[in-house]
Amino acid sequence: WPEVRTMMRFELQIALRFLREGRAQSALIVGGVMVGVAVVVFISALVTGLQSNTIRRTLGAQAHIVAKPVEPVARVQIETGNASIALVQTAPRKIRSIDNWQQVMAAFEAVPGVVAASPMASGPAIALRGEGRNAVTVFGIDLARYDRIVDLRDKLAAGNLRLEPGDVLVGLELARDLGADIGDRITITDGTAGSAGERFQIVGMIDPGNRDLSRRSVYLPLHVAQNFLGLPGGVTSIDLRVQDVFAANTVADRVARVAPLTVESWMLTNNQLLSALNAQTMATGMIRIFVSIVVMLGIASVLVVAVVQKTREIGILRAMGASRGQMLRVFLLQGGLVGLFGSMLGAGLSAVLIFGFSHFVRGADGNPLFPIALTGPLLAYACITATLCGMLAAIAPARRAARLDPALAMRA
What we know:
By secondary structure, the chain is of the alpha+beta class. It has helices spanning 2-21, 23-59, 101-109, 143-150, 152-155, 172-178, 211-216, 222-228, 248-256, 266-269, 271-309, 311-319, 324-360, 376-393, 395-403, 406-411, and strands spanning 65-68, 73-80, 83-90, 114-129, 132-141, 156-159, 167-171, 185-189, 198-206, 217-221, 237-242, 262-265. The strands form two sheets. The protein has a six-stranded mixed barrel with strand order 4-5-10-7-9-8, surrounded by four helices. Strands 2-3 form a two-stranded antiparallel ribbon. The longest helix has 39 residues, at 271-309.
């Protein structure tokens, strides 16, 4: 071990001396690595922040997985002369309940990957206040359970988050359309002739982050909505939250095997969004690859020139007893050191870029567009990758230096 340590110290000293003697070349290639690493880290952090913000806004107002009754189909027999044709048509839509939903929900909660489940009774209705009249969707929820699905507490724009009999939570845009405020009463009716509807007091306003959803959302206690929709004791869907949002399809397949229901994940209902996220991820990966290639080519070109310039010095070192392996390791160390120093400086430059983007690029409300985090794993990945790329780029120059004949090198 002492001999190995002495050898490594010798090779490190030679590598650092070669780098110091070619200060201009070393500075240029370290600067190139710095810029390359800064670009990779900045773009990776930017895309990660953008994707996280997009997923948070998209999934913030909906469940990761929704299970609901299977839509029945109707068979219609049509007689045409001597022939009879059977047509399959979708049955008329009506509000349907999940059979034995308590047992089904308990089984869903035991499925690996599911972290929360909540029953819901939903259906169309009309909200009235004075001359205001809006078509809405009534969501009957168990508030404690549903808050774990979509985090209503985080979306509370005004009032209190509670649902007692006679209370109602409404979307912020719906309250504006009706000219209502906290404490005002609105009438919810099913729109059928002769229906006077029921009156509820607004106790809170929810801003789900989607204007259309905010304009038509009405949240009632579960048992109140069940009676209003004509589903005493029934629910129209069971909402689920999963641990890993990108594993929603896999978990949905497990859930579908538990009960004969229609099970849809957010990845199915937001297919275009998922395609956009995948395209962003692929683009970021391609940028990383090409920047790494450019950095490797830069390091390799500089070290090739260094081998040519240091041919005489290499010959002297070989004549003094330095082995081919030692000369190989000298130039591998040079490549690794260039990658390491450049990546450390690049990490600092990326932090400056992220700060500048967060400080100067803002939305209409004056707040940053979305949070960008410079994480330790990302910096470690960038530094390790740059160092390995430097050593890989140094392989060809190092082998060339190791193969030099001492006698011929000294005469160069």
